[in-house]
């Protein structure tokens, strides 16, 4: 008699099927900007600490303003004098315009001594102290916008074709292990990087309560394929 061959039998059912591409990444702020003064000078005031929230228009830090204020006051006096002389017909209009330009220039020089927040966000870091001399090349600190954040991760060369803009992404963080944050692939770099042979991918994640902080470590799952009631 022939010996029966062992077989395996499976019950087939329809289920929701998901194919995901796992990766590891780091959280980045939606905007992370180096703070630098447009002019050289000695820092007179630093108005915020690291991690403090700032709103658009806040003065984050200021340089010594003695000399710019004197120049502005002088330009203001000259402008007022030339305005009256022009009204009396004692000077040409070109002389008045010259005074107006000198006043505007002095005001612009004063504005350069203030480091102003261009939008709402947080002071990510402060890297100088009061009394430090800085130039336009020196980083004073960092600005971070956290209303949205990015999960930045690498995809190995053989999986590049599986990732594209607009794909859904799920991210879990060590800080919130029981919570899944949803996002969308925002950009895929066209360059395969060095020794790692990976492509940099950025996924945008909404962060309305600002629980997610830049620098956090994240486990990323890119949803490559989804189908309801797959056999």
Keywords:
single chain; 231 residues; alpha+beta; six-stranded antiparallel beta barrel; four-stranded antiparallel β-sheet
Please tell me about this protein's structure.
The chain has 231 residues and is of the alpha+beta class. 18% of the residues lie in helices and 47% in strands. It is built from 2 helices and 12 strands, in the order ββββααββββββββ. The strands form 2 sheets. Strands 1-8-11-10-9-12 form a 6-stranded antiparallel beta barrel. A hairpin with a 2-residue loop joins strand 9 (168-173) and strand 10 (176-193). Helix 1 runs antiparallel to helix 2 (93-111). The chain starts with 14 loop residues before the first strand and ends with a strand. 20% of the residues are buried. The mean pLDDT is 92.
Strand portion: over 45%
Main β-sheet: number of strands, strand sense, barrel status?
A: 6 strands, antiparallel, barrel
- The succession of helices and strands, N to C, reads EEEEHHEEEEEEEE
Task: Give helix % range.
Answer: 10-25%
User: Major sheet: order of its strands?
Assistant: 1-8-11-10-9-12
Low-pLDDT residue intervals, each spanning 5 or more residues: none
Q: What does the radius of gyration come to?
A: 29 Å
